[in-house]
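Exercise 7. Predict the structure of ABC transporter substrate-binding protein from Pantoea coffeiphila.
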Amino acid sequence: MTRSPVAVTLKGIGYAFGEHRILNHIDLDIEPGSIVALLGPSGCGKSTLLKILAGLLEPQQGTLHFGERLIASAAKSTPPEQRDIGMVFQDYALWPHMTVAQNVAFPLLMRRVSAHERQQRVMQALQRVGLGDFAARKPSDLSGGQQQRVALARAIIAEPKILLFDEPLSNLDTDLRESLCLEMATLLRQLGTTAVYVTHDRREAEILADRIVWLAAGSVSAIQTVTSLSGEPA
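Solution. The predicted structure, encoded as tokens:
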């Protein structure tokens, strides 16, 4: 990763569906290059908060900054494609008619990166996630864990300043989920990218994150610093 990560600052973020308040005055500071897990039960607001970070929803109150840049407020919202983010979804979101290489290359194609550079960067990204020999395959030829690695390669290939994860491992069985979680934790720390990871699984959060932000009823109920087995911060 050659680009510097950025801080993420949320101040007074609020959102409601009709009379039902989903987010209630969320204040959160995420340091550059850190990994934050949003953890809590269904309906606590974590997915809504991630969608606001991604630009899929606009906050009704408060402000969102990436570094010094105002990204969203009740009056203004930067489109998702202009936010310099990468996102990994729960359902992989791979195009079945494309090869693995074509799926991974898509963000670079949209940025009009040359074919030669695209090819080089696709192979680098696939090697990072352990799929260097799978470039010519179709997603249907891969296991669920391999498909999620493809989605991760696609998210990191454009070297975004921020990575967002929407419960990416929830469709996998327990053993595979934990092993892939460990791989992702290692890769994210190698990349040094600011990351926000939504999960309902405390074990995933403890493996991946530097801090766990607990949400309850649309508010931050606690913030936990994660420590490694040695007792040092992760």
